[in-house]
Design brief:
31% of the residues lie in helices and 30% in strands. It contains eleven helices and 20 strands. The strands form five sheets. A six-stranded mixed β-sheet has the order 3-2-1-6-11-20, sandwiched between helices. It starts with a strand and ends in a 9-residue tail after the last strand.
Length: 423
C-alpha cells in the first residue's frame, strides 16, 4: 500500500477514486479508477453520513479489486463550492543573522497572513500564497535561499464551514478509510487538466456536477475566483425522464450515449428503444430527445456565461475548460458552448492512460498533487495546523507517509494537527 497513492472525490451523484504510483522516471501512473453511486450528498454538502459512507466503501472495494491491494488510507478533496477565498497579507522580519530566508521564515509569514477576522461558524483550512515580496521586490514564487530583511506574502485564505467539513470527514472515516490529507479541489483539477500557460494568461474551469456547477477562474498563475451555480447535469436528466416518461437511470443513459448537440437533421428520424418500466420497452424520438437536452443545456450555459461576465476577470479569460460529468460527456458540447459563451471551449481530460475522462479530473489531480509533495517539491498552499486533536481516531497511528509529508507546503491539507475544532 505504501507505494500507492489513493485519491477520493465525493460528489453529489458519485464517489470516485483513483490509485496511482510514481514510476522509476518520476512520473505518476494511474493504476486504477472506480466509482459508486452516492445519494448522501446534495450540492457538495453531506446530508446523509451513512449513505455517503456506504458509497465510499463500495467505491474503495471496486478499486481494491482493480489494483489488487487492500486500501486503508486515502486523500480526499475539499470542494471549492463549499469554500470561500479571502485575500490577506503577512509580514515578518527575516530572523537569521546572515539575512538568508529559510523555511522557518516562510512558515512564519504564512502564519502571519492567517491573522484575519472570520465568521464564528467557519474555519481557516489553508493558505495559497500568490506571491512573496522581499524588501519591496515582488512576484517571487520561492523565497527560500534568497537574502533580505523583510519578507511579505500576498495570500488567499481558504475558509470552509466547520460542520460541513466535519460531516465530510466522518463519512470517510465511517467507511474505515484513514484520511491522510485533503486536497483543495480547484487546485487539484488545475494540476490534472490545465497547462501552465493557460493558468498564466487566464482560463476558466467549469466543473459541472450533478447538482451544482463550480466556476474556477485562474489568472496570473493563481486561482483568482470561485463562483457557484445551483444547477447541474441532473436537471438535464430529470427533464428527459419527465418529458419522455422513462426512469431516471434510463434518461441518464440516453443523455450520455445518444444525445449529440448541434448536428444536422440526418439522425432526426431515428427511434431509440429504452426500458420504460420493468420489461416494458418504448421507442423514443431522437429529435424530441435532442430538443429537450439542447433547451436545458442552453439555459445552463447562459447562467455560466452570466456569472463569468459578472466577474472582474472575464476579460482576462482566454478559454473555457469543462470537466465533470454534467456536461463533459455530452457529444458536441464544445461547439455548442462556443456559440453561447463566445470563447474557445475544450473538454478537460487528464493526460493519463486509464483515466482520460473529465469525470476523473479531480481524483487524478489528487494523486498528482500528493506524489508531487512526497517527492519533496513545494506546492502553492500552506496548511492550517492545530496544536491538538480531539478526534483521536485520526491520530492513533502516524505512519511513515505522514511523517514524510509533515513539513511539506502544498495544496495538500495534511490531516496531522488538522481540524481540531471540528470534532
Amino acid at each position: 500500500m505504501d507505494e500507492y497513492i489513493v485519491g477520493i472525490d465525493i460528489g453529489s451523484s458519485k464517489v470516485r477514486a483513483a490509485a496511482g504510483k510514481v514510476d522509476r522516471y518520476g512520473k505518476v501512473q494511474i493504476m486504477g479508477v472506480a466509482s459508486a453511486k452516492c445519494n448522501g450528498v446534495k450540492k457538495g454538502i453531506v446530508v446523509d453520513i451513512d449513505n455517503t459512507s456506504e458509497a465510499v466503501k463500495e467505491c474503495i472495494a471496486a478499486l481494491e479489486r482493480m489494483v489488487d491491494i487492500k486500501i486503508k488510507e486515502a486523500y480526499i478533496s475539499l470542494p471549492g463550492g463549499i469554500s470561500e477565498l479571502l485575500w490577506n497579507k503577512g509580514v515578518v522580519a527575516v530572523s537569521s543573522e546572515d539575512r538568508e530566508i529559510r523555511e522557518g521564515d516562510v512558515k512564519r509569514v504564512l502564519k502571519a497572513s492567517k491573522i484575519v477576522t472570520i465568521p464564528s461558524d467557519k474555519e481557516i483550512i489553508g493558505v495559497i500564497p500568490e506571491q512573496y515580496i522581499i524588501d519591496g521586490y515582488d512576484k517571487i514564487k520561492d523565497p527560500i535561499g534568497m537574502s533580505g530583511l523583510r519578507l511579505e506574502v500576498d495570500a488567499q485564505i481558504i475558509l470552509a464551514q466547520t460542520t460541513v467539513v466535519n460531516n465530510l470527514f466522518k463519512s470517510v472515516i465511517k467507511a474505515e478509510v484513514k484520511v491522510l490529507g485533503v486536497v483543495f479541489q480547484p487546485l487539484a483539477i488545475s494540476q490534472a487538466v490545465l497547462k501552465d500557460d493557460e493558468i498564466q494568461r487566464g482560463v476558466a474551469v467549469i466543473d459541472v456536477g450533478a447538482e451544482c456547477t463550480n466556476i474556477y477562474v485562474y489568472e496570473g498563475g493563481n486561482l483568482a475566483s470561485i463562483q457557484t451555480a445551483a444547477l447541474g447535469g441532473s436537471i438535464i436528466t430529470n427533464d428527459i425522464s419527465v418529458c419522455l416518461k422513462i426512469p431516471f437511470s434510463e434518461a441518464e443513459n440516453l443523455k450520455k450515449k445518444h444525445v449529440s448537440l448541434g448536428e444536422d437533421n440526418a439522425n432526426y428520424n431515428i427511434k431509440i428503444e429504452v426500458n420504460a418500466d420493468y420489461n416494458n420497452k418504448i421507442k423514443v424520438d431522437n429529435y424530441m430527445l435532442k430538443q429537450i437536452v439542447e433547451a436545458r443545456v442552453e439555459e445552463l450555459l447562459y447562467i455560466i456565461d452570466e456569472k463569468l461576465k459578472s466577474s472582474e476577470y472575464y476579460e482576462k479569460v482566454s478559454g473555457i475548460v469543462i470537466v465533470g460529468g454534467g456536461l463533459g460527456l455530452i457529444k458536441g458540447i464544445e461547439d455548442f458552448s462556443k456559440n453561447i459563451i463566445k470563447k474557445p471551449v475544450r473538454i478537460g481530460t487528464p493526460g493519463t492512460v486509464g483515466a482520460s475522462s473529465p469525470l476523473y479530473a479531480c481524483t487524478v489531480g489528487i494523486v498528482n498533487d500528493v506524489s508531487y509533495a512526497v517527492k519533496g517539491n513545494k506546492l502553492s498552499a500552506d496548511v492550517e495546523k492545530q496544536p491538538e486533536k480531539k478526534y483521536k481516531e485520526y491520530t492513533k497511528s502516524k505512519d511513515k507517509k505522514e511523517n514524510r509529508n509533515e513539513n511539506k507546503n502544498g495544496i495538500m491539507l495534511k490531516i496531522k494537527e488538522f481540524f481540531t475544532d471540528f470534532f
